[in-house]
Each structure stands twice: as structure tokens, then as C-alpha cells.
Amino acid sequence: MSPAGTELMIEAQGLCKYYGQFAAIDNVSFSIPAGQVTAFLGPNGAGKSTTMKILTGFLSATKGTARIGGFDVYRDRIAAAQLIGYLPENGPLYLEMTPKALLNYLGGARDLSGAHLRERLNYVAERCSLTQVWGKAIGKLSRGYRQRVGMAQALLHDPRILILDEPTAGLDPNQVHEVRELIRDLGKSKTILLSTHILQEVRAVANRVILVNEGRLVLDGTASDLGKNEEEMEARFRQLTRRKVA
Fold first, then answer.
1. Domain check: are 169 and 239 in the same one?
2. In this predicted structure, what is the pLDDT of residue 4?
3. Which of 73, 99, 213, 245 has CA atoms 20 to 30 A from the CA of 112?
4. What per-residue confidence (pLDDT) applies to 199?
5. What is the per-residue pLDDT for 244?
6. What residue numbers bound the domain in which 127 lies?
7. Residue 198's CATH number
8. Where are the beta strands (DSSP E) in the chain?
């Protein structure tokens, strides 16, 4: 699904992850070109988070190859990591720190400093609606605000690629709308892979859908390939993810 001549930013080639006899993912392959917003779907336990962790270098594959911007994630993890902004599901945060202090620390870890770091801090504080809680301990923030802090750290170094695991989890309807608008805007200049189980979100932000079930890829197409409306999408989703009876 990559137009000829388009740079591939995310590549999964035959990815497998085994835990003993259990296959968390089995021969998952896809490629995502620059500038595409791709929704990564599947029921709980389908292998979405495992795949994302392999793509970001947080987990090693049993078999297969993951590339980010042409860099092999296993062999050139630092080069690949410089291109990625990653929001993990329920990502860990230092609860005693404020958003400002945490992001300032993470900016330093990303080799940002001086005026450039201040510019990026101001940018993420505004774009992620954190200004009102900028100096408040993260441990005292709501789940929604903590999710915004996670999104801010993913955006801080202005990466070319965003890998977002359930980016609207824990947000209220207004916050969900803001995040979707942000993803749509970022999709004009960045490559985005986002995991979600909300089909309305797929129609709202994505121009491509990858669906996995029981560790295997079962659909790679557009949102309309899943259905013309939310009702059709739900029916098709259930059909493709129905558990196999032994």
C-alpha cells in the first residue's frame, strides 16, 4: 500500500514473538509510507502492543525484522529511536515530578537544550493542553492529564514518526476530540501508527487500517474496507476477530 517512490518509515517483515508454545504475534508483515496515518486494530490480546513494542525496540522479536526510517531496530536502535515518538499504553511517569520538570528532564535526555528546548516545552504544553497543570505534581493529576503528559513526551523532540498505543484512553469526550484533532494535524507532516479499539476513531483520523487477531494480520486496507459506517465496521470487526473453536 505504498505509492511508488514513497519513503517507507515503518516496516514489519515476518515479525514473530513466542513465549514457549504461545505465539503473541505470528508472521506479521506490513509497511507504512511517509505521511500516512494508520490505525492498528484488534481485540484485547491480539498482539497490537507486542508489535508496537518490537517496532520501538522495547521488545525483541523471536523472528523477523523491524525497520524505522530504514534503520533496523535491533541493529541500530539509537538511530531508529531518534525518529520515533512513542506513547505506550499506561506508560510510566515519575509521579512526584511536575509535567514541566519531567519534560525538561526528558528533553535533556534527548539532547535538547537552551532556546530549542524551551521552544519545544512551550509547544507541547500548548498542544497537549498542559499549561494549567504545568507546575502540579503528576501524581495529583487525573488519568486524562497523565495521558496528555505521555503525549507531550512523545512529541517533545519533534519526531518524524509517532507510535501511539491507545492515545485517547482515559480522556473525556472533549479531550478525545482535542487529541483526534491533534493527530489529524500531525498527520499532515508525520507518519503515525496508532492502536485503538474505538472504530469511530478510525473513521475520524486514519486513512488506513491494519487489523490483527490472535497474533495474525487479518486485514490491511482502508477504513471503508472495514465498512461504510460504524455499524458495518463493528459487524466486520466481529466477523474477522471471532475466536476459533478448537
1. yes
2. 46
3. 73
4. 85
5. 62
6. 91-158
7. 3.40.50.300
8. 8-19, 22-33, 37-41, 63-68, 71-72, 84-87, 161-165, 191-195, 208-213, 216-221
